[in-house]
Structure formats: C-alpha cells, structure tokens
Amino acid sequence: MSDIILETKGLTKHYGGVHALEDANFTLRDGEHVAIMGDNGAGKSTFVRQITGVEQRTSGTIIFGGKEVNFKGPIQAREAGIETVFQTLALADHLDVPDNIFLGREITKWNWLGPFRRLDYKAMRDETLAALEKTAVKIPNINNVIQNMSGGQRQCVAIARTASFHSRLTIMDEPTAALGVQETEQVENIIRNLKKAGEPLILVSHNMRQVFDLVDRIVVFRRGRICANLDIKKDKITGEDVVGYITGAKTGDEYMETAL
Amino acid sequence: MANTSRGTGGLAFDPKKRSLPSELNIFIALILIVLIFEALGQILPYMNNQSFLFDTRDRFDSIFNEARLRIIILQVSIIGIIALGVTQVIISGGIDLSSGPLVGATAMIAMSFAQTELVNGNPNPKAVFGEWAFDLPVLIPVVVGLAFGAFIGSVNGMLIAFTRIPPFIATLGMFLICRGIAQAWTRGKPVSFPTDSFAFIGKGMMPVAWFIGLAFILHFIMRYTVYGKHTYAIGSNEDAARMSGINVERHKVMVYMIASMLAAFAAIILSSKNLTAQSGMGIFYELYAIAMAVIGGVSLTGGRGSIIGTVLGAMVFGVIQSGFTYIKLDAFFQLMAMGTIIISAVVLDKVRQERATKRS
After folding, report:
1. Does B10 map to a domain?
2. How far apart are CA A94 and CA B298, in angstroms?
3. How far A194 CA sits from the closest chain B CA (Å)?
C-alpha cells in the first residue's frame, strides 16, 4: 500500500520507570484525518512528540512517506514535511504575525551576508496575507505583536503558520482547548480546508463533537497503549462507545491481548 | 493595501489606535530632563541665571553651549558602544556583567601591542614586551584587542548556551576573571605611550564618530536582518525559537561574542583617547551600559527594546550626569540620584507593560 504516509511500529517511550507509550502501531493514509483521543496521561502527547522528533523514542520504528525516519529534532521533522501545532503555543510574544509565521525560515535578500542577511519584510507580509486568506483566518492587524492578541487569534496564527506551508502531514495537539466558540469554529474551518486540499492530519482532541464532525477515524489511547481503532465513517460508532474505550470499559477486539 | 482600516478577513481596526513607538517616550523624557535642568538654572539662587543648553555668554558661534554638548556626547560615546552590545544581549534574554572589567583587560592587552619605542628620545619607560613589540602597525593592537574580546565573549556564550547556567552567574565569574587578567598582565603597572596611529583612534571627537557609526550598523542588524529577528525571538520565547528551527545555542554564542567585541573596541578607543591603559579602567561601565539600555526601554525580561532606544537612553544618561554637575550636586548624591533614576525607569516600564497587556 503506497498511500500510507505515516506508519509506526512498536513505538515505545519510557521516562525512567514510567511507561508513557508502549508498543504503538499506527498507520495514516494520505489525505486521511485521524483523531487521537484518550484520558489525560494516556500517551497522546507523548506519541506526537516521538513522531515530531521533540523527544527521542525508546524503541520502535517510524516510517514516513515510505522511508524509515529518525528525526533528531522538530526541525528535521519539519524539513521532512511534518508541521505541528503544539499544545503550548510556539509563538514569540513580542513579534508580529509575519515574523512569527516565517520564524526560522525567513524570506531574505543579500544572502551572501550569512547570519546578517537582510529580511524581506514586504515579501513575508504579502505571503502572510495570502496564507491568512487561504486559511480564512481573521486577524485585524497583522502588524500587531502576538502579546496584544486574544488566545483565539494566537492559536489562529499558530495554525495559519502550520497550514501556510505545503506540508505532507499536519499534527495539531489540542488546537481548540483554550478557545471560545467562534474561535473554535475558525480553527475547525481551517481543518476542513485541509481536508478539501487532501492534506493528511492527526488531531489530538478531547472534544467529542469536534472529532465526530471532522475526522475519518478515531484512535484511542489508554495508559500508554492504543486500545481502539474506530472507523467512524463506516462503522456505527457513538460518542458513548468512544467514552467506553477511553475509560477502559471497552477494548477494541484486535487489542484485547495487550490492553489491560 | 487599499483600505488600511481593514485587516485580514475584513476585520476593522483603527490604525490611529496603534501604539506609538516606545522610543518616542524616551525622546520626550530627554527633552523634559533638559528643560528641567534649564529651569533649575534659572530658579536655583546660586546659579546666577546660567543656561544649561544655550550659549548665554557668547563663547561660541552657535546659540547652544557647544562645550557642554560636546562633553555630554563624548562621555556617553564610549560606554554607549558597550551599551549597544549589551542591548542585544538583554534582548536575547540574557545579561552581560563582564563588559566593564573586559574594558580594563582589553585596554591593557591592546596597548601592549601599540607602544612606541622612543618617548621624547628616551626608551619607553612603560614597555611591556621586548623590542619586537614596538611601533607595530595599528592594525595589530586592534585585531589583538578584538580577538581577546571575541574569545571572552564566546566563552561567556558557550557557558550560557551549553551548561545552561544563568547569564548573571557566568558573566559575573567572567567579571572577576577579566579584572584579574587586567591586573596580572603587568602586575598592576599602567601601560602607556602608544604610537601616533593608535592614538588617532580615540582622538578628539573620534569616539563619537565610532559610536554613531556602530549604532547605525547595530540598528540595521537588529531591525533588518535574520540575526536581529532571531535575537528578539529567543528573548521572547526561547522554546518557540528552538521549535522554529533556530539554532539557539549557536546564536547565543554569537550574541555574547558580538557584545564582548564591542566592549573590547570601546576599550581600544578609551585607551587610545587616554593615551594609557590601566587595570582599573572601566569600573562601573557594565552597570552604566545596562542602565543606558534599561533607560532606553530595553526590557530585562528579553524580547523588547531597540538600538534607537539605547542611544536615546545613553543621551538621557549623559544629560543627567552633566546636569547634576551643572547644578553643582555633590558627586556622592549624584550616584544616589542615578540609582533612583534607573530604578524609576524600570518601574515605569513595568507599569506601562502591565497597562498594555490589560488593555488587550
């Protein structure tokens, strides 16, 4: 199957004696939107951190785009095409919107000057406006520094930053956790646009309604292990079922042996 | 954009409500301080209607008291060059306390390579090295001085970036090490009698020219280059900078290296201007440089501030110092008043910051 964009085999992460992630086997097809659910401490964020290279896994393999990968850090993952919106916003408070969107990959002139090469503010500004237009993110003034923005606007900048670059895989770790109703809707619209564009997504979320609205498949984590893989478009699955898997009342058939 | 009152997605915003550049506040403060001293000159009974700013006794061709202005800007220039480097360190979220002693150490070392063989026909009484070190081209003491600065700065930077000890501790240690180097270099004896070409570096108003030139370069770097942007980003949110692919460690080493090279250059200018180097040179310079940056609106928590602000802060600093002398304030009280002003500047800045966050 060549349309598998991401596959993990036996992905494991131990923090000292704590087994945060145990033997996670996961696949994602191109264009597919998958939600990762689970209780706090179930290993969702740990799973994301191993894929994006923020942390180094204890064991297991990650295959991205048909090739086995070993990301030493989030930069390498990004260069390979994995864009991540982290739970803690990775934005610089004192910089404005274009600066943040282009942080670490600025458009520059006079490149012979090395680290002192000149920033092309105009090009970055134009591309920012285009990107915000594309993702339908609404921000009053892009020259405003992030510090003076609401939580929702900040999150939108973080997501626009992710979505404005042609990535092969987007990962969002609880993108709407701290947002109001309208802002959540904006973020969900961005996700729908990604779906239309055929870009694959991994969404970590606690919001049942959101997950059922947006994704094709739900993978449930419990106590560091994957305990269910639910195709919500094909099978008849309700929110109650998912809660059952999250709390441990139910376990997916294929995971019976490993799950506790 | 055609309609500037509309942002992305058609959301309205009022461009008039955009906050004015914070440098404007410092500029206004500078003018106010000048006016206060001018007024004090008129009010205080023992001042005999002297003017702080204007040439009331027709000593100069212009209407201003040129002598005072010249002294103010000359006094400010050398510490100002250090302040330019310290500004980018503070913006990156750090602090550099080693710059003052570094001035002493660099002055001693650079001057040793800039001595003349004969002083009024006699052998140089302050010679540090043998014959080979006399009458070297001016480039050699300058390069040696800058290289020493770069070395100290990169040690500072590597300590801070790789061992993750607080910048305060790392540079405090370097503060003592540098003062020790300065004293050990000649066992405390001064180094004097430079070549004419070395003496030219700090002659007359040359320090001012260097200060203005370097301020322009640093302003361009901080405002318009990738280096500057990454410095702000690291000071603003180090984790975000790291996740964005910025090599934070390498960048910090560069920041401290540039700061120390500027301090070393200030030492070269200072020793050239004084025609001598002493191990005690640069006492309090690190604190004055930090004070200039802080008065100029550079936030000690990082991420905020500008070179323009620091230049204005340096001017405020110089004007206050000159003004205290002008109103014949005792030197002891001058230190106290200066301390009070620095604390007030930080408190004011904090209040303004908090108000700004509350408004949004």
Report:
1. no
2. 12
3. 18
Indicate the fold that domain A4-93+167-255 takes in CATH: Rossmann fold (3.40.50)
In which domain, by residue range, is B129 found?
21-40+62-355
Give the N- to C-terminal CA distance of chain A in Å, as an integer: 31
Phi/psi at B79 (5° precision): -65, -30
Domain at B125, CATH number: 1.10.3470
Token digits for B316?
């405020």
In order along its 260 residues, chain A shows pLDDT tens digits of 468 889 898 889 988 888 888 888 888 988 899 999 988 888 888 898 888 888 888 898 999 888 888 888 777 888 888 888 876 667 888 898 889 888 888 888 888 888 899 999 999 988 888 877 766 677 778 888 888 787 777 877 887 777 666 678 888 888 887 777 877 888 888 888 888 888 899 999 888 888 888 899 999 988 888 888 888 877 778 888 888 888 887 777 667 665 54
Domain count, chain B: 1
Is A22 within 8 Å of A224 (Cβ atoms)? yes
The verdict on residue B284 lying in a domain is yes
Does residue B52 belong to any structural domain of this protein? no
Question: Mean of the per-residue pLDDT values for chain A?
Answer: 83
Is there a contact between B229 and A99 if contact means CB atoms under 8 Å apart? yes
What are the extents of the domains in chain A? 4-93+167-255
Task: Please report whether residue B48 resides in a domain.
Answer: no
CA distances B42 to B29, B37, B325, Å, are 20, 9, 15
Of B10, B221, B357, the CB nearest to A147: B357
User: What confidence category does residue B154 fall into, taking pLDDT thresholds of 50, 70 and 90?
Assistant: very high
**Contact criterion met (CB < 8 Å) for B7 and A104:** no
Q: Flag if A149 and B13 touch (Cβ within 8 Å).
A: no
Cβ–Cβ < 8 Å for B87, B305: yes
